[in-house]
Amino acid sequence: MAKSGREVDAQSVAAFTVLKRAVELDSESRYQQALVCYQEGIDLLMQVLRGTKDDTKKSNLRKQITGYMDRAEIVKKYLDQEKEDGKYHEQIKIEENATGFSYESLFQKYLNETVTEVWIQDPYIRQIHQLYNFLRFCEMLIKKPCKVKTIHLLTSLDEGSGKQQQSSGLQEIKESLQNHGVLLEIEYSSSVHDREIRFRCW
């Protein structure tokens, strides 16, 4: 079914809004997010092209699409090379009280058969729910296709009433991972404040 001119115009506005955001992210060196926006914007612009009858507009759209596709390909190659060199770094910002972020949705794209070692820095793995979340994260790491052999945890020591709970909880997780052939190395530091996760690939 042919689209009306109004529908095409709305799609065009949506496409260029997304592509404008892609260019902004690109200029800020936020390449992974920029690539997603480029791909989405190009797809929308292709739909606009299919609904455009004017030859001059079609020609202009094709030139714009080609330009955005060329830039997206450069960004993609850059990201691929960064990943290959082990230099790729992505920061994911999750607002307070945000929902819908599972470990799989956040990390699945990085977990493949080349990942062998993981570093986790989290100052608060003390309470039952924190220990449970850490356990769930470890469970994800030992699923196929991952071949994780060592997990390094840097956290802070609970000096209060929860010390025994923290110690026994982490020991249980360590023994459970050992049964799967995975070594959990635990280190405590009073100076750790930020959360960070790093993967090593062979």
In short:
It contains six helices and four strands, in the order H-H-H-H-E-H-E-H-E-E.
What does this structure look like?
- It is found in: Endosome membrane; Late endosome membrane; Midbody.
- With 202 residues, the chain is of the alpha/beta class.
- It is 54% helix and 12% strand.
- The chain has helices at 5-27, 31-50, 55-85, 103-107, 128-141, 163-178; strands at 115-121, 150-155, 183-188, 196-201.
- It is elongated, with a radius of gyration of 23 Å.
- The mean pLDDT is 86.
Q: What are the defining features of this structure?
A:
elongated; four-stranded mixed β-sheet; 202 residues; 4 strands; alpha/beta; 6 helices; single chain
String of helices and strands: HHHHEHEHEE
Distance between the termini: 51 Å
Anisotropy-based shape: elongated
Over the alpha carbons, how many angstroms does the gyration radius reach?
Answer: 23 Å
Helix content: 40-55%
Q: Low-confidence runs (pLDDT<50, min 5 residues)?
A: none
Please report which band the strand proportion falls in: under 5%, 5-15%, 15-25%, 25-35%, 35-45% or over 45%.
Answer: 5-15%
- The whole-number mean of residue pLDDT values reads 86
In DSSP terms, counting alpha (H) and pi (I) runs of 4 or more, how many helices? Answer: 6
Give the class from helix and strand content and strand pairing: alpha/beta
Largest sheet: 4 strands, mixed
Number of DSSP strands? 4
Strand arrangement in the largest pleated sheet: 3-2-1-4
